[in-house]
Amino acid sequence: MPSPSRPAARSLLPAPARLPAVGVVAACVVVAVVLGVLVAGQHYAGPVDMRIDAAIRARLAVHTRSVAAAISLGDPLPSTILTAAIAAACLAARRYRGLLLVGAVPVAIGLTEYVLKPLFGRTLAGLYSYPSGHVTVVTAIAVTAVVLLTGPSRPPLPAALRWLLAAGAIAAVAAVAAGVVAAGMHYATDTIGGGAVGTATVLAAALALDWAGARRRPAAAPAPEQERADAGISAGARGLPPA
What we know:
Shape: globular
Strand content: under 5%
Number of domains: 1
Largest sheet: 2 strands, antiparallel
Structural class: mainly alpha
Helix content: over 70%
Number of helices: 10
Radius of gyration: 24 Å
Strand order of the largest sheet: 1-2
């Protein structure tokens, strides 16, 4: 029985969601790699990007303040504050597995900025653009929030509020993706790649942490009734009267 001073570790993902999560991770890896290969070395918008980018810019061109506000969510300072706030909430609630999951956010942005951007070499205005770092970090934060708000480690909040917060996190990803395209900072496919990297990194971390936690969890001690029953069966098998 877990000690009252140390709550039992809770899984990040419910058991029925783990296999679908593996599928999502695999799909995101395929999308990120295939798109990266297709746009590698480009310094211009392809046919798909031209259509999507033009449509987004036409609709958002007059909303410069809203676009700037959306983009700022993926800037270093705001994204660091959001990440630290989630980590502090996990620490206060003693959800240490959730605290470790928050570490997937800097891993995702490091993977984008220092591995994938130089690897694929796509540029816009002379800067690496694929995958989008803004979308990567906001997606990683959003997926982390959704996992923590809806999984077994969820906080004791009303269900409607938890799902509203999760929906808001996903909406923030869409807003940032549209914003960086509208501002001419990224092509549309850059944002898709960033979303795939952020999602895959966090879900892979959640699966790994749950697997590691299950490996370390000791087998449950048998209940006293079960122990007596087992003793009776064992004694009966030896032809002795049960204890």
